[in-house]
Amino acid sequence: EKGLQIAIDGPAAAGKSTIAKITASKLGYTYIDTGAMYRALTYKALQSHINVNDDDALLKLLNEITIELQPSEDGQIVKVDGEDVTEAIRSQEVTSQVSATAAQPRVREMMADKQRQLANAAGVVMDGRDIGTAVLPNAELKIFMTASVEERASRRYEENMKRGINRSMEELCQDISRRDKADTERAASPLKQAADAIYIDTTSMTIEEVADTIIQFAEKRR
Ligand code: C5P
Questions:
Q1: Which of 32, 98, 107, 108 could disulfide-pair with 42, CB 3.0 to 4.6 Å?
Q2: Which ligand 1 atom is the nearest neighbour of the CA of 12?
Q3: Are 142 and 193 in contact (CB under 8 A)?
Q4: pLDDT, tens digit, 9 for 90 and up, residues 165-197
Q5: pLDDT tens digits, residue range 8-58?
Q6: Which atom of ligand 1 sits closest to the CA of residue 111?
Q7: Residue 1: pLDDT band by 50, 70, 90 thresholds?
Q8: Which stretches make up the Cytidylate kinase domain (predicted)?
Q9: Average model confidence (pLDDT) for the chain?
């Protein structure tokens, strides 16, 4: 049987990557976190003192660097020019700048090309903001996953506690809302539910319930 392309889109901290990892692992598919690619470019731009609003400079940088996504036990290792940046790309600094990088049209075009190449090996679960609308418009299964801002902030808060990061619920709500606004309102492939995507509000669902729902849809389409 042929592997499906599964696109999972939605706003910041909706649990997309957690669910995408579980779904990929249960189906034996490759998991691709496209947000990590924008984060890796942003990380490198900050290091190289490149303005995250400068499309030309970012595009040049993107052409010069190598971003690698490698499957690992608990998801995915991200490397830039051979350096393991899996943790570093989750920093507050990168998180607060990444939506600017991701708003640059030519950066997006090149990222989408790279992502399509990665998805060519059939049997992928790809998560992001524009996978169902722009990167893989022919994906067999599209999910648009969301949850209330408060619920997303509270999940992020729990996650931060485990990683020793100290940010208040209020700050987290602000961070998330600001990123949602930037991602939804940008001109180049904004965050938007694809017409043929299945909408899942995960506010009062467990991780297992969400993963099972998606796997049931996937089984029907295989
Ligand atoms: O998924 P994650 O929160 O790590 O993504 C970080 C940022 O990268 C998003 O806030 C968004 O600005 C950008 N992004 C995007 N398109 C994607 C994936 C992520 O614009 N497909």
A1: 98
A2: 3
A3: no
A4: 899 999 999 999 999 999 999 999 999 999 999
A5: 999 999 999 999 999 999 999 999 999 999 999 999 999 999 999 999 999
A6: 21
A7: low
A8: 6-219
A9: 96
Q: Which amino acid is at 216?
A: Q
In 3D space, the residue among 33, 186, 178, 175 whose CA is nearest the CA of residue 92 turns out to be 175
Give, for ligand 1, the residue of 159, 183, 191 to mutate: max count of ligand atoms closer than 8 Å to Cβ. 183
pLDDT tens digits for range 209-222: 999 999 999 999 98
Instruction: Give the predicted TM-score (pTM) of the model.
Output: 0.96
Cβ 128 under 6 angstroms from ligand 1:
yes
Amino acid identity, residue 176? I
Please give the Cα distance from 43 to 61 (Å, whole number): 11
Most informative mutation of 90, 99, 129, 142 for ligand 1 (most atoms within 8 A of CB): 129
Query: What are the start-end ranges of the H helices in the chain?
Result: 16-27, 34-47, 55-64, 92-101, 105-119, 149-163, 169-185, 207-221
Cα separation of the two ends of the chain:
7
